[in-house]
Write a structure and sequence with these properties.
It is a single chain. This protein is mainly alpha-helical. Helix content is 36%, strand content 7%. The chain has 8 helices and 4 strands. Strands 1-2 form a two-stranded antiparallel sheet. Strands 3-4 form a two-stranded antiparallel ribbon. α5 packs across α7.
Protein backbone atom coordinates (compact mmCIF):
# COMPACT_ATOMS: atom_id res chain seq x y z
CA UNK A 1 0.00 0.00 0.00
CA UNK A 2 1.47 3.43 -0.95
CA UNK A 3 2.51 5.63 1.97
CA UNK A 4 0.17 8.39 0.75
CA UNK A 5 -2.92 6.24 1.34
CA UNK A 6 -4.65 6.16 4.73
CA UNK A 7 -4.72 2.90 6.67
CA UNK A 8 -5.86 1.67 10.06
CA UNK A 9 -3.40 1.67 12.94
CA UNK A 10 -2.63 -1.96 13.75
CA UNK A 11 -3.04 -1.25 17.47
CA UNK A 12 -5.80 1.31 18.05
CA UNK A 13 -7.64 1.14 14.70
CA UNK A 14 -7.52 4.90 14.02
CA UNK A 15 -7.21 5.74 10.33
CA UNK A 16 -3.97 7.62 9.57
CA UNK A 17 -1.50 8.48 6.81
CA UNK A 18 2.08 7.43 7.73
CA UNK A 19 4.42 10.23 8.75
CA UNK A 20 7.80 8.87 7.62
CA UNK A 21 9.64 11.50 9.73
CA UNK A 22 7.79 10.70 12.98
CA UNK A 23 9.90 9.94 16.07
CA UNK A 24 9.81 6.30 17.06
CA UNK A 25 9.26 5.29 20.67
CA UNK A 26 12.34 3.07 20.81
CA UNK A 27 15.76 4.67 20.17
CA UNK A 28 18.40 3.14 17.89
CA UNK A 29 16.09 0.81 15.97
CA UNK A 30 17.18 -0.61 12.58
CA UNK A 31 15.70 1.20 9.58
CA UNK A 32 13.32 -1.60 8.60
CA UNK A 33 11.86 -1.69 12.13
CA UNK A 34 11.49 2.11 12.18
CA UNK A 35 9.77 2.09 8.76
CA UNK A 36 7.48 -0.77 9.75
CA UNK A 37 6.39 1.08 12.90
CA UNK A 38 5.70 4.32 11.03
CA UNK A 39 3.58 2.45 8.51
CA UNK A 40 1.76 0.24 11.02
CA UNK A 41 1.10 2.57 13.96
CA UNK A 42 -0.35 6.06 14.20
CA UNK A 43 1.66 7.30 17.22
CA UNK A 44 4.52 6.65 19.65
CA UNK A 45 2.00 5.26 22.12
CA UNK A 46 0.87 2.59 19.67
CA UNK A 47 4.50 1.68 18.86
CA UNK A 48 4.70 0.00 22.25
CA UNK A 49 1.93 -2.38 21.27
CA UNK A 50 4.00 -4.03 18.56
CA UNK A 51 2.98 -7.48 19.81
CA UNK A 52 -0.60 -6.67 18.73
CA UNK A 53 0.50 -5.59 15.26
CA UNK A 54 3.17 -7.00 12.99
CA UNK A 55 3.13 -10.76 12.49
CA UNK A 56 6.05 -12.79 13.85
CA UNK A 57 8.51 -14.07 11.26
CA UNK A 58 10.08 -17.55 11.36
CA UNK A 59 13.71 -17.28 12.47
CA UNK A 60 16.38 -18.56 10.11
CA UNK A 61 19.42 -18.38 12.41
CA UNK A 62 21.88 -19.74 9.84
CA UNK A 63 20.89 -17.04 7.33
CA UNK A 64 21.42 -14.32 10.00
CA UNK A 65 24.85 -15.69 10.91
CA UNK A 66 25.91 -15.92 7.27
CA UNK A 67 24.60 -12.44 6.45
CA UNK A 68 26.69 -11.02 9.33
CA UNK A 69 29.66 -13.24 8.38
CA UNK A 70 29.73 -14.77 11.88
CA UNK A 71 30.90 -11.48 13.38
CA UNK A 72 29.49 -9.85 16.54
CA UNK A 73 27.70 -6.62 15.63
CA UNK A 74 28.49 -5.06 19.03
CA UNK A 75 32.17 -5.78 19.69
CA UNK A 76 33.20 -6.76 16.15
CA UNK A 77 34.99 -10.00 17.08
CA UNK A 78 34.69 -13.20 15.09
CA UNK A 79 32.21 -15.82 16.33
CA UNK A 80 33.43 -19.11 14.80
CA UNK A 81 30.79 -21.28 13.17
CA UNK A 82 32.04 -24.42 14.95
CA UNK A 83 31.27 -22.83 18.37
CA UNK A 84 27.56 -22.54 17.57
CA UNK A 85 25.48 -24.12 20.33
CA UNK A 86 28.15 -23.76 23.04
CA UNK A 87 26.33 -21.85 25.76
CA UNK A 88 29.31 -20.90 27.96
CA UNK A 89 31.94 -20.02 25.35
CA UNK A 90 32.33 -16.19 25.30
CA UNK A 91 32.72 -15.84 21.52
CA UNK A 92 30.12 -18.45 20.52
CA UNK A 93 27.64 -17.04 17.97
CA UNK A 94 24.13 -16.21 19.14
CA UNK A 95 21.18 -14.20 17.83
CA UNK A 96 20.39 -10.85 19.45
CA UNK A 97 17.31 -8.66 18.99
CA UNK A 98 18.59 -5.09 18.49
CA UNK A 99 15.26 -3.82 19.81
CA UNK A 100 14.24 -6.32 22.52
CA UNK A 101 11.70 -8.87 21.41
CA UNK A 102 9.00 -7.55 23.76
CA UNK A 103 9.21 -4.15 21.99
CA UNK A 104 10.49 -5.11 18.55
CA UNK A 105 9.93 -7.81 15.98
CA UNK A 106 11.52 -10.97 14.63
CA UNK A 107 12.13 -9.13 11.37
CA UNK A 108 15.59 -10.16 10.02
CA UNK A 109 16.79 -6.55 10.16
CA UNK A 110 16.10 -6.52 13.92
CA UNK A 111 18.26 -9.64 14.38
CA UNK A 112 22.06 -9.64 14.49
CA UNK A 113 24.85 -12.13 15.04
CA UNK A 114 26.21 -11.43 18.52
CA UNK A 115 28.89 -13.09 20.63
CA UNK A 116 27.57 -14.83 23.73
CA UNK A 117 29.23 -12.36 26.14
CA UNK A 118 27.85 -9.20 24.48
CA UNK A 119 24.41 -10.83 24.27
CA UNK A 120 24.47 -11.63 28.00
CA UNK A 121 25.71 -8.12 28.81
CA UNK A 122 23.00 -6.41 26.75
CA UNK A 123 20.26 -8.80 27.91
CA UNK A 124 16.67 -7.60 27.37
CA UNK A 125 17.47 -3.91 26.93
CA UNK A 126 18.08 -1.51 24.08
CA UNK A 127 21.63 -0.43 23.32
CA UNK A 128 20.79 3.04 24.65
CA UNK A 129 19.45 1.68 27.96
CA UNK A 130 22.70 -0.25 28.53
CA UNK A 131 24.97 2.64 27.56
CA UNK A 132 23.13 5.55 29.21
CA UNK A 133 24.57 5.02 32.70
CA UNK A 134 28.03 4.10 31.39
CA UNK A 135 28.28 7.38 29.45
CA UNK A 136 27.78 9.45 32.61
CA UNK A 137 30.50 10.19 35.14
CA UNK A 138 30.53 7.77 38.11
CA UNK A 139 28.04 8.62 40.84
CA UNK A 140 25.52 10.32 38.52
CA UNK A 141 22.36 8.25 38.08
CA UNK A 142 19.70 9.36 35.62
CA UNK A 143 17.01 7.22 34.01
CA UNK A 144 17.88 6.47 30.34
CA UNK A 145 14.54 7.90 29.14
CA UNK A 146 15.20 11.18 30.97
CA UNK A 147 18.77 11.37 29.69
CA UNK A 148 17.51 10.81 26.14
CA UNK A 149 15.44 14.01 26.37
CA UNK A 150 18.59 16.01 27.18
CA UNK A 151 20.16 15.10 23.83
CA UNK A 152 19.69 17.29 20.71
CA UNK A 153 18.13 14.30 18.90
CA UNK A 154 17.77 10.54 19.30
CA UNK A 155 21.04 8.69 18.67
CA UNK A 156 21.00 6.14 15.88
CA UNK A 157 22.06 2.54 16.20
CA UNK A 158 25.27 3.12 14.21
CA UNK A 159 26.21 6.09 16.43
CA UNK A 160 25.92 4.04 19.63
CA UNK A 161 27.92 0.94 18.60
CA UNK A 162 31.35 2.75 18.80
CA UNK A 163 30.54 3.80 22.37
CA UNK A 164 29.76 0.17 23.27
CA UNK A 165 33.15 -0.89 21.89
CA UNK A 166 34.87 1.90 23.80
CA UNK A 167 33.19 1.35 27.16
CA UNK A 168 32.98 -2.44 27.29
CA UNK A 169 35.44 -5.16 26.45
CA UNK A 170 34.17 -8.38 24.98
CA UNK A 171 34.22 -10.34 28.22
CA UNK A 172 31.47 -8.07 29.52
CA UNK A 173 33.72 -6.23 32.00
CA UNK A 174 33.89 -2.46 32.16
CA UNK A 175 37.03 -0.89 30.70
CA UNK A 176 39.04 0.26 33.72
CA UNK A 177 40.41 3.49 32.29
CA UNK A 178 37.37 4.39 30.22
CA UNK A 179 36.92 8.10 29.44
CA UNK A 180 34.45 9.93 31.66
CA UNK A 181 33.30 12.45 29.05
CA UNK A 182 31.26 9.94 27.03
CA UNK A 183 27.95 11.77 27.36
CA UNK A 184 29.51 15.11 26.44
CA UNK A 185 31.11 13.59 23.33
CA UNK A 186 27.84 11.93 22.30
CA UNK A 187 25.98 15.23 22.84
CA UNK A 188 28.48 17.14 20.67
CA UNK A 189 28.36 14.44 17.97
CA UNK A 190 24.55 14.62 17.79
CA UNK A 191 24.56 18.42 17.95
CA UNK A 192 27.07 18.79 15.09
CA UNK A 193 25.23 16.27 12.88
CA UNK A 194 21.94 18.02 13.60
CA UNK A 195 23.45 21.40 12.64
CA UNK A 196 24.86 19.87 9.42
CA UNK A 197 21.40 18.54 8.52
CA UNK A 198 19.82 21.99 9.08
CA UNK A 199 22.50 23.81 7.05
Amino acid sequence: MPDTQPRECQYCGIEFVPDLERDIAIPAAPLSVVSARRRAHCSEYCDYAITHGLRPIALNRTAIFERDEYRCYLCGQSTPKDLRGFRYVPNAPSIDHVVPRILGTDDPDNLRCCCRRCNLEKLNATLWEKLARLLLAPGINVFPAVLLRALPRRPTFSELVPFWRELLVCDGELVEDRPEDGFERLYNLLLSSKDDALA
